[in-house]
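I would love for you to help me understand the pair of lines that follows before we discuss the fold together.
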Amino acid sequence: MEKEPLSAPSIDKAKAIVQNPHLWRAEEVLSALGVDPKMGLQPSEALRRLSTYGRNELPRPPSVSFWAQVMRQFDDSLVRILLAVSCVSFFITLVDPRPQPCCAYAEPFVILLILAAGATAGVLGVARAEEDLGALSALQMYKAQVIRNGRLEIVDSAAVVPGDICVLHGGDRVSFTLFSRLHYRFPPTSVLSVLSLLR
């Protein structure tokens, strides 16, 4: 089944359809994506589109360096005030002409120690939360039912590509990115059944 090369205006329309499929009729989306609703995509075409469009998942936020996380812990006005008080107290103790016992430096040292402990706890908490989030996202792998090569196949939702015909049933759990990147239509049903599908 050879397709004619797209002309310039239809290439622009095809790009617009791929970027915002929910704005177009189903027939236009199917035509622009070159897919037969009964046959779906061929496995080789699905692999090609997966390499072209990438995985169907939200991009991961860029990782923050250790020192940037430490600096974020001091990005608070109360912490800055405590740092300033500690520095002023240390400076006053240092320039005082009277001889000072070692315990005179205890106040700024204790303030700095408390701030360092708070920053350490904050950095460790962020690291632990990122670890837990990664473990949870690995556990919560969604599956999608798609029509490929005329057969119903179950694939990871991350492997769903533009042009895949997704089959949804009541109670199915579907990752959000599936809805955000692909064309979908609900049959006329009650709002409650649609909401239960999205839970």
